[in-house]
# Entry
Amino acid sequence: MQTFNPAEHMVFCRKYKENLPKLPNPPFPNAKGQEIQNTVSAKAWNEWIELQTMLINENHLSMIDPNAKAFINEQREKFLDNADYQKPQGYTPPKA
# Structure
């Protein structure tokens, strides 16, 4: 019988610099997805998804465009690393 180990469901989040619940699955089926699952909390990832949606909509991006994909990937890394990322008009980040 398998026992529940809470530590297996936690990750040291690179955005929040603390142990938080991790993503249940990698967000992408590749090494980058595995890296994100191992270094980004579910909280930070969910915030990124909301921001990503706003950036795509506000900038009228087509995710089949390689330039749009590159832009979103760049903004994702900046957001998750607490660097200066592009914010949608009127955007205020969630309070920690």
About this structure: The domain at 10-81 is CATH 1.10.3880.10 (YggX-like). The longest helix spans residues 42-58. Residues 26 and 35 are 8 Å apart (CA to CA).
